[in-house]
Structures
1.
Amino acid sequence: MRVPIIAGNWKMNKTVPKAVALIQELVPLVAHSQGAEIVVCPPFTALYPVGRELSGTNIVLGAQNLFWADQGAYTGEISAAMLVDLGVSYVILGHSERRAYQGETDTQIANKLQAAFKAALRPILCVGEHLTDREQGRAQAVVETQLEEDLKLLSSEQVRQLVIAYEPIWAIGTGRCAEPADAADMAQMIRNVVADKFGPGAAAEVRIQYGGSVSGANSHSFLSQAGIDGALVGGASLKAEDFATIVKSALR
Ligand code: PGA
C-alpha cells in the first residue's frame, strides 16, 4: 500500500520570518491529517528555522536541490550531508525550472539522485514534457528518455523508495492543469518503465505524484486517480489553507 505524499515546493519565496509565519499557520491546519505524508520544501535559507517548527508535528522537511559531490571547491553549492544535518528528509531533484534556468542535464540529475540516496535522503525526481512535445504526440517518449537517463545509476532497492513527480512543464504556474486522465496515463507509463528496468517490486512501491497548477479546487480530481499517489504543489503551497485542503484531499 503506497502512502500518499503531498509536497509543497516553496521555490524562491519567503524570507525567514515569512517562512516561519507560513509554517506556524500550516501546522495546526494539518495536525489531524493522518494517512498522508506531508512535506514542505522551503528555500535553503529557511530550512533550519522551518525545521525547528516541525519537531513533534506530522510534517517533514524537504529541500529543493543538492550538489552531487560530498564536499570541496564548489562555490555556492550545498551537499546532501549539509541537508541531513538540518533535519531534511526529502529533496526535489531535476525540477524543470532548474533544467531550464541552470541548464541541469540528465547526467547531473542522475549524479544528484545517487548522492541523495548515499546520504539517506529521499529524492522527489521531477520529469515532464514541453507543450510542443505533447502537441506533437511525443510526451511519453520525452518522459521515458528522462527516466532512462535520470535513473541509470540507481538500484531497484533505491527506486522502491523514490518519488517521481510528473510535471508537464506547460502546467507549472500557469493555472492550466493536465487532464486528470492524461496524468493518470503518464503515471501508468512511468510505472511501466520502472517495472521494465527495476522489476515489479519497485514498480509497485515507487510513488508517483502529479504536479502543475494543483489547487485545493482540483487536487481531488488528480488524487482520486488510481496510479497517482500524491501531488507536488508550487503556488498553492504558499497559502496554508489551500495546501491544507490539498493534503485533506489525499486522505483515503
Ligand atoms: P505550481 O508549481 O503548483 O505553481 O504549478 C508546481 C511545481 O513547480 O512543482
2.
Amino acid sequence: MLKIRNIDAFYGNIHALKNISMDIEKGEIISLIGANGAGKSTTLMTICGVVPARGGEITFEGTAINNMATDKIVALGINQVPEGRHIFPYLTVMENLDMGAFLRSDARGIKQDMDYIFTLFPRLAERRNQAGGTLSGGEQQMLAISRAIMTRPRLLLLDEPSLGLAPIVTRQIFEIIKKINQENKTTIFLVEQNANLALHISDRGYVMETGSITMTDTGRNLLANEDVKKAYLGI
Ligand code: ATP
C-alpha cells in the first residue's frame, strides 16, 4: 500500500532521516519504535508532505506522493493524528468531528461515521456538546483519532497516541486502535515510545535509531528479540 524507498529528510543541517525504506501492506498494523529524537515523527511528517522528502520515492497505492501537497495526500486516503493531538479546544466534540468531514459531502456517510465513532467511544457521545479543550487527555486523544476517522482514511498514521496518558487509558486506546483496524480494514502506521504495547498489537514493526532503520520483523519476533528487549522494553 505504501512504499518508502531511500528517503532522506533534513531540518537545516540536521540529517533527520538517512536513506530509509519501509513497506506497509494493506490491512496491517505497523509500528515504528525508537528512542527520543530517532526520527519517528519526521517519518510520518515526510509521508504527509509536511517535511519535504529528499531523494528516493514514496508511493501510496502506486501513486508517487513525495512532493505532493498535504491536502492532496489526505484526499488520496492518508490521515495523520499528530503528536499532541491538536484538537480545536474551543469547538465542541461534534464541531471537531465536523471539521474532520470538511472535504466530504455525503451526508448519510458522515452520519454513519459519527454513529460509529459514538459506539467506539461512548465517552465522546456523552460529551458531544462539550468544548474539546475541557476533555481529559484520553478523551482528547479519542477525539483526535475520531476526527481523523471522519476523513475515512485507508491509511491512518498515529503519532504517540499514549503520550501523557495513564496506563489504563492507554490500554483502552490501543484496544480501540486494533478494533478500527479489524472492523474498518483501516491500515495503521503507529509511532510509539511504548514499544511493548505497540508491538503487541502490530503485525510487523520497524526499529529506528538516529535517522536509520536498523531492524524489522514481525511484532512477535521483535518482542522476543534480546536487543529490542534491552533497548526498548526495559527487560
Ligand atoms: P520523539 O519521540 O522525541 O518525538 P522522534 O523519534 O519522533 O522523537 P523526530 O521528532 O522525528 O524524532 O526528530 C528527529 C531529529 O530531528 C531530532 O534530532 C530532532 O531534534 C530533529 N528535529 C525534529 N524537529 C525539528 C525541527 N522542527 N527543527 C529542527 N530539528 C528538528
